[in-house]
Amino acid sequence: MASTTKSKKELVDFLWEWAENHNDWSKLLISKVVSAESELYPQDRELVFNYFLQSINQHTGLPALKIAKPTYTPTSKQIELTTLSDIAGVNRLAKNQTLAFSKNLTVIYGENGTGKTGYSRILKNLGFSYDLNNIVHSDIYSVVEPKSAVINFSVSGENKTFIWNGINKDSELQNISVFNNNCVQLSLSDRQLIVSPVGFHLFNLVTTELTELKKLLESKISGFTTTFNWTDSLNIGTPQQVFINGLSESTSEQKLIELSSFTIVQEQELIDKQTELSDLNKTLLENDIKTLKLIENELETILAKIQSAQTLLTDANWQLLITYNKEIAALENKTKTGIKDIAATNGIEFYETDEFQEFIKSAEDYIKIINKPDYPTSDDLCVYCKQPLESSASELLKSYRALLNDKTQENLERFIIIKNALINSISSVDINLVFNQSTFGIGDDNKPVQPTEIIEYNKFLKTLKTDFITDKVTDNSKLTFDYEKYLKFLTDKKTAIQLVLKEKNSLSENFPAKEKELKSKIAELKDRKLLSQKISEIKTSIANRKIVSTLESKLSSFSTDPISRKTTKARNQLVKKNFINLFEEELIAFRKSDLKIELNFETGKGKSKISHRMNNKYPLAEILSEGEQKAIALAAFLTELQIDNIKAPVIFDDPVNSLDHRIIDEVGKRLIELSKQRQVIVFTHSILFLHSLIQQSELETNKQAKVQFEFYKVKNNFGITGILDEVEELNSFSYYTKKLQAVIDTKPTADQDESKLAAEGYGHLRSAIEMTVEDYLLKKTIKRYKKGVAFPSLLRIDGGKLDIHKGKINDIYEKCCVSIAGHSSPSELHTTPTIKELHTDYDQFKTVRKIFMS
After folding, report:
1. Which alpha helices (H) appear in 132-199, and where do they start and end?
2. Could you tell me the maximum CA-CA distance found in the chain, to the nearest angstrom?
3. How many Å apart are CA 58 and CA 210, to the nearest integer?
4. 270 or 378, which is more confident?
5. Are strands 607-614 and 720-726 parallel, antiparallel or unpaired?
6. Distance (Å, whole) CA 186 – CA 246
7. What is the spatial distance between Cα 540 and Cα 534, in angstroms, rounded to a whole number?
8. What mean pLDDT do residues 159-187 have?
9. What's the pLDDT score for residue 797?
């Protein structure tokens, strides 16, 4: 709220002292704040800011300032609430209720849960308090309804209306101050003053404006682009990344040029290094090594096969086979010629057949088995038929045996074996050499490519091998095959593979270092390329950083600390003593002057802060009782109200809770006194406090001072709260007799309990009797809820009437008590009351009452 207390000394001097230590923009700021006495309009704030920028050479074109120290006249207003009506959507408050406020003191009484706090919360939401909780709930038990209320009020005699929607605020109504039970602990804690002394709100306004100006400066600073959205693309640790991260207003553009040049040569180098790194893939490298080893092994195997063929299928063996064939043919001819002569001489047919040849060989073999080396002799029988041999047969056998045991046959067999062995050795020559590895690549059929040389080798060697093993080698032929051609072809390939394998193995062994080297170089080249595309942007950033550096160095120009120091100095000189004196007077009013309480003032961001201590160190909440804390909090609250020049309504919600009866009366008197300066509205559930205020409203001194009082009672009806009623009826004769008559007039139904209804009526009758005794028999000498005895009324008591009729009144009173007790003990049938008895006793009581009223 606006600061409004009067000071003997100008506060503008303190603000002007601060401004003189800054440039002319600060004087413009003070001048506009004092003139507006509120936060500046955006355009005024912008003007001050531009003058600030011009003072640091960041703005041009504004005329020079010539500003004199401003003068300050405090605001003075009288704000009064007229009515609070048309309430909807607040707690469970009843609709169509109008709370009309007295010009001085308005009291709203109600028991807990009757809705008085609902009214209080609306007013608290409009104003200010130590308790910052301003939440106002709708009826949580029904459909949520929008919150609304109509507040009629006046400002220095001018009538106004405010439509509240639960959120909106009115600048005048924000001056309403509220004190509730939650305020006690908050009030006694270290806190800001809720009411700022006159003119001191200017310190807070200047502080607010400095904060806003700082925001403008920060916004301007943020408007200069100094960072880039591509820095994450840079590789950590490269010279370019280090350079960009270290950019400042003093960064050399020459260094930028060195790190951002990127030529065609470097472009190609980047491509090459990326390819090399791609090939350096560890898994691929390991697979390559594995494949190369398989290729190497396969080449060695095929080379070994060709070398084996080279040692077997040679021209020497080819010529040897021709020689063997010739020898065998000659021996075979010799053997066949001898047998022919013998067979022809002896007239044997078919001697040239193989069967015959086998026959005579088998016969010779049989003779050898039976061990007859000299067979046949003159005495021998035929070994086959055991018949005597004729001389001619014996001679023929001797001729056959002589021929068969000749060395020619043995040599023939030996040559045949050697020849077969030679042929068999050539059979092992592999003429189907195939590459199963991708030594020469992969074909379109996704199979390893077979080189032309190997296809040619297999083809030609196959012909030679076939001719050899099928014994088709012709006389005088030669074997001519260039094994070295194929061996060289495969050896060269093997050597090439071994070189690649060696490189791969070496690369594998030094993989981490090589990979790091390649990545580092690629990163540097990539970042160099990126910077080459951002040179203009980086130069702009460097230029902006120079401006930002200048602006950031001036952020301290908007520091609020100097204003806080000025606030402290002004408060100590102009307010502190007066505040302490007022507080001590309030303590005396609440009979707490014996409590030695120290007040300590501080300043934070231009706002005054206060703390309460005992013995200079103990917080009050740790020492004082609940009632004492309440009294001290009220004293502090009332003290702050006295330094407020705007006279706005003050709301007290249950201000005497926890206070004893002596303090309650003092609080009542103090609030009545306060209501003479500003409107006071009290919400209470204390019947003692209510009657204390009613009693004081009847005092002549308050009537002479024309203090206006308004008393309300709030009640419930079928769950709806906040129903307004006249408080005068409470504890009056008519209040109880109306309830009694309602019981008597009740139309009976089958589901009613007559005894229960009658017992309720006797309860009202008993209260009516008590009120009659107080008002007419004892002439108000003693009253409930009121202190002291009215001795002047004692003389008006008619003792004679009292002696005559007191017995009858007592009998009816006892009947009431017994009827109420009997209802609570239904087993005592003789006490069960009836409506007819109630009616009779009521009529008798009215007859007696008339006697005392005459």
Report:
1. 183-188
2. 206
3. 19
4. 270
5. unpaired
6. 50
7. 10
8. 86
9. 82
> What are the residue ranges of helices labelled H in 280-314?
282-312
Residue type, 464: L
The rounded distance, in Å, linking the Cα atoms of 264 and 218 is 44
Q: What does the pLDDT read at residue 401?
A: 65
Q: Is 95 helix (H, G, I), strand (E, B) or coil?
A: coil
Query: Look-up: residue for tokens 């209040």?
Result: 735
Joined tokens for residue 448:
């390893």
Give Cα 685 to chain centroid, integer Å.
46
Q: Which of 418, 433, 420 is nearest to 307 (CA)?
A: 433
Contacts 24+ apart (CB under 8 A), 55-64: 55/23, 55/24, 55/25, 56/550, 56/551, 56/554, 58/547, 58/550, 58/551, 64/24
Alpha-carbon distance of 451 to 493, in angstroms, equals: 11
- Categorize the per-residue pLDDT at 801 as very low, low, confident or very high, splitting at 50, 70 and 90: confident
DSSP three-state, residue 598 = strand
Both structure tokens of 645: 């020049």
Taking residues 844-850, report their average pLDDT.
89
Cα–Cα dist 177/196, whole Å: 13
* Span 770-785, average pLDDT: 78
Average pLDDT over residues 565-573: 79
pLDDT number for residue 196: 63
Q: Residue 475, SS3?
A: coil
In terms of Cα–Cα distance, which of 516, 513, 502, 514 is closest to 288?
502
What's the rounded Cα separation, in Å, for the pair 74 and 235? 64
Helices within 353-406 (DSSP H only): 354-369, 391-404
Residue type, 678: R
pLDDT digits (tens, 9 = 90+) for 57-78: 999 999 998 888 888 777 778 9
User: What distance lies between CA 329 and its chain's CA centroid?
Assistant: 105
Between CA 240 and CA 695 the distance in angstroms is 88
Split at pLDDT 50, 70, 90, the class of 3 is: very low
Task: Report the candidate in 637, 699, 703 with the shortest Cα–Cα distance to residue 674.
Answer: 637
Residue 652 CA to residue 107 CA, distance in Å, equals: 10
For residue 607, the cross-strand partners are 604
Q: Is 173 in a helix, a strand, or coil? A: helix
321 close to 426: Cβ distance less than 8 angstroms: no
Q: Give the span between the Cα atoms of 193 and 609, in whole angstroms.
A: 6
CA distance linking residue 159 with residue 80, whole number of Å: 9
Segment 647-656 shows an average pLDDT of 90
The answer on pLDDT for 828 being more than 50 is: no
CA distance 808 to 629: 50
Task: Give bridge partners of residue 611 from the DSSP assignment.
Answer: 600
Higher pLDDT residue, 362 or 486?
486
Look at residues 156, 194, 133, 147 and name the one whose alpha carbon lies nearest to residue 76: 156
Over the range 471-495, which residues count as b (16 or more CB within 10 Å of their CB) and which as e? Answer: eebeeeeebebebeebbebbeebbe
Nearest to 205 by CA among 12, 379, 356, 10: 12
- State how far the alpha carbon of 30 is from the alpha carbons of 35, 369, 373, in Å: 8, 149, 155
Query: Distance from CA of residue 718 to its chain's centroid?
Result: 47
91, 147 contact by CB (below 8 A): no
Residue closest to 142 by CA, chosen among 806, 732, 746, 718: 718
Q: Residue 246, exposed/middle/buried by CB under 10 A (0-12, 13-18, 19+)?
A: exposed
Q: Are 433 and 302 in contact (CB under 8 A)?
A: yes
- The tens digit of pLDDT for each residue in 268-286 reads 999 999 988 887 777 777 8
> Euclidean distance between the first and final Cα of the chain, in Å?
59
Alpha-carbon distance 19 to 831, whole Å?
A: 88
Question: Among candidates 86, 105, 94, which has minimal Cα distance to 152?
Answer: 86
Contact 269, 525 (CB under 8 A): yes
Taking residues 649-674, report their average pLDDT: 86
Which residues, 6 or more positions from 580, have their beta carbon under 8 angstroms from its beta carbon? Answer: 599
Look at strands 607-614 and 618-619 and give their pairing. antiparallel
